[in-house]
Amino acid sequence: MYLDDFDKWFVGFFDGEGYFNIMTNRYKKKNGDISVRKTFRVAISVAEDDYQTLLLIQKQYGGNLSVRKKQNAFPNAQKQWTWYTTKENFSKVISKLEFLKTPNKKERYEKFIKELDEYIN
C-alpha cells in the first residue's frame, strides 16, 4: 500500500494521540432474546487549541467531529474535540494504521482488528 506524505503524518499523529474504540450495545428483542451490536471506531481527541488539526484530518479522510467540555474539569478548562471514523471512511483509515510504529499502539491495533474480524465472521 502506498502512503502519501499526509498519510505518513496521520499515522505518526495517531500513534501518539489516537485510540481504538469498540462500543457494545445490547438490545432486547420482542421475543426476549438479547441482540448485541458492536460499533468499531478509530478516533483522535485533542484540546480545543489543536482542533484545526482535526479539521485537516476530516478534510482528507472524512469522518465526524464532536466537541465537549472535559469531564471533571475546572470551570475554565478547554473543550475536548474528537474526530472519529464513520462507516463510510472506516476502511480507508484503518488500512493506513497497519503502519503504526509504537509497540503498544501496534498491539492495540492487532487486537482491534482481531475482534473486528471475529465480529464480522
How is the topology of this model organized?
Elements: H1 5-17, E1 18-28, E2 34-47, H2 51-61, E3 64-69, E4 79-84, H3 90-96, H4 103-120
Antiparallel strand pairs: 1-2, 2-4, 3-4
Please give the CATH architecture.
Answer: Roll
Quote the CATH topology: Endonuclease I-creI
- Major β-sheet annotation: 4 strands, antiparallel
Low-confidence stretches: none
User: Which sequence of SSEs, written as H and E, runs from N to C?
Assistant: HEEHEEHH
Going by CATH, the homologous superfamily would be Homing endonucleases
Fraction in beta strands: 25-35%
Number of helices: 4
Supply the number of structural domains: 1
Describe the structure.
By secondary structure, this protein is α+β, with helices and mostly antiparallel strands. It has a single domain (5-120), classed as Endonuclease I-creI (Roll), CATH 3.10.28. The chain is built from four helices and four strands, in the order αββαββαα. The chain has a four-stranded antiparallel sheet.
What's the gist of this structure?
With 121 residues, this protein is α+β, with helices and mostly antiparallel strands. The chain is 40% helix and 31% strand.
Keywords summarizing the entry:
121 residues, alpha+beta, Endonuclease I-creI, 4-stranded antiparallel sheet, 4 helices, 40% helix, globular
